[in-house]
Amino acid sequence: MAQPAASPAAEPAPDNNPRPAAPVPITVPSPHDDHHHHLVDRRDTPRGRAWEPERARSHPEPMDGVATKLVTGEAGYVLEDVPHVSDYLPDLPTYPNPLQDNPAYSVVKQYFVDPDDTVCQKIVVHKGGARGNHFRRAGPRQRVYFESDEVHACIVTCGGLCPGLNTVIREIVCGLYDMYGVTKILGIQGGYRGFYARNTINLTPKCVNDVHKRGGTILGSSRGGHDTTKIVDSIQDRGINQIYVIGGDGTQRGAGVIFEEVRRRGLKVSVAGIPKTIDNDIPVIDKSFGFDTAVEEAQRAINAAHVEAVSAENGIGLVKLMGRHSGFIAQYATLASRDVDCCLIPESPFYLEGEGGLLRYIEKRLKDNGHMVIVVAEGAGQKLIAETMQSIGKDASGNELLLDVGLWLSQKINEYFKKTKMTINLKYIDPTYMIRAIPSNASDNVYCTLLAHSVVHGAMAGYTGFTIGQRITEKQNRVSITDRMWARLLSSTNQPSFLCNKVIEEAKKEHERAAQLLDGSPSHRKVEEKVASSKSSGKK
Ligand SMILES: Nc1ncnc2c1ncn2[C@@H]1O[C@H](COP(=O)(O)OP(=O)(O)OP(=O)(O)O)[C@@H](O)[C@H]1O
Ligand SMILES: O=P(O)(O)OC[C@H]1O[C@](O)(CO)[C@@H](O)[C@@H]1O
Ligand SMILES: [Mg+2]
């Protein structure tokens, strides 16, 4: 889907932010916003300052698989716009946004986002270089496409658990009630199949009041079971006209398909996505909710591994963390802990034997230090393991099931030291589900609120086929091992890079050339591809 930027509901477009020279006015789907309401100027308050830069970077984007509407302007300006119900239902009436009469927001300087506000995809730009694409800025619009008592919303959660799911549910419900006076909100139980095979529950601010203090999702979740026709039939039969979909990459693709079918049937239904990915592996958004909580919880496992390791002769603490395709949780947990001697992630293939290999490094570390801690992301080393173990198939959504790298690694380490006749004490800790089944921490709760309120503004304004996101930094959906952040990790753990000298030298040369360009440029990607392919082939 496309995503609207996350900007909190009643929080106005700050005009004290230095903005680049105004781009040529662009056509926006919601034809209004003649002026901003100015009430109390809060710009000089600490709260105002703290929030404004963040809001200025939040945005919605089209859902995965949904065609992007490109709007161009002067100086290479490109807006990746999101679909709108008026694109296929051109004569819809609009209504004043009820937020302007809401006493809670009466101190807000500007109620509404300026229609010309956009959020730049690139945070770092090269002088004279292209600025990259822009996204529509999230936030309340002056006119909305739904009357409060016309709205019949529903919320569904799909895919794996993640801290903060309940907070997002709570804040969508409260946001709809408190900001827009919407009272008809259905909870779809058990993921996508819940649309046609399960019960629904009525959601009210009262029944969701405490749910942010609980882990999991009060609605339940599932994988598989996405039957587009049955889902959209159910939406039509129930008279649902706003669908809030919370889930990962698969879920957002599923929401994109629902949007296409809704559009094909010409229904006035807004399909809005809130990306959930504990692995932090959805591109374009910078940080997914629940990630902070997961990294924090991972510290407890790493601490335990460290305590066990230092208390035994040649103690090795091995911790497995989530991260199917990307090692962000492992990377950040390692950097935060400082007790970790080696971090293994899917993006950086490693090898066991010989010079520069993992086993020699462990041996050296034990000889030097007497103990060590290893953090491994669940998706690391899968190719290596597959050399001796059979694939275990796919889950109901078609995701490849992973072989247990933690158990495999424990076995390989034990075998090696048995052969070398060196006593070791290895303790394997697998807290994978523990880091995602907990309630979100304070910072994630605030972030969930921002996302939930922003997605409500987007849907009320008639946007559809979008997912909500926030920009803080340039973000890939996989750890880049040629980034400074990975270098920081390598220098903190002192682990081998598992790269041969030739590859490093080549990468350096390429980097010198690429340094004049920006991250994300084709040549930058070429370097990464080259490093990755050399690693998976050559090694020693
Ligand atoms: N391409 C697709 N088209 C339609 N539905 C899809 C598609 N991919 C996934 N889905 C549906 O989305 C739901 C969630 O997908 P999946 O199990 O892959 O989790 P996810 O959203 O990627 O979250 P996680 O990050 O936890 O894996 C499932 O019900 C699945 O059937
Ligand atoms: O065992 P489940 O519930 O299918 O989920 C496991 C997967 O879900 C995730 O937590 C993503 O949500 C991955 O990190 C992990 O591989
Ligand atoms: Mg997924």
From TrEMBL:
Low complexity bias: start-end ranges: 1-14
Cofactor: Mg(2+)
Site keyed Important for substrate specificity: positions: G250
Keywords for this protein: Allosteric enzyme, ATP-binding, Cytoplasm, Glycolysis, Kinase, Magnesium, Metal-binding, Nucleotide-binding, Transferase
GO biological process, one term: fructose 6-phosphate metabolic process
Record's function text: Catalyzes the phosphorylation of D-fructose 6-phosphate to fructose 1,6-bisphosphate by ATP, the first committing step of glycolysis.
Protein name: ATP-dependent 6-phosphofructokinase
Residues annotated as domain Phosphofructokinase: 154-457
Keyword DNA damage (UniProt): no
EC number: 2.7.1.11
Residues annotated as catalytic: D279 (proton acceptor)
Cellular component per GO, a single term: cytoplasm
Coiled-coil boundaries: none
Species for this entry: Eleusine coracana subsp. coracana
Binding site for Mg(2+): D249
Annotated pathway: Carbohydrate degradation; glycolysis; D-glyceraldehyde 3-phosphate and glycerone phosphate from D-glucose: step 3/4
Domain of life: Eukaryota
Stored Pfam families: PFK (PF00365)
SUPFAM superfamilies: Phosphofructokinase
Region Disordered, residue ranges: 1-65, 516-540
Molecular-function GO term, any one: 6-phosphofructokinase activity
Signal peptide limits: none
The family this protein is said to belong to: Belongs to the phosphofructokinase type A (PFKA) family. PPi-dependent PFK group II subfamily. Atypical ATP-dependent clade 'X' sub-subfamily.
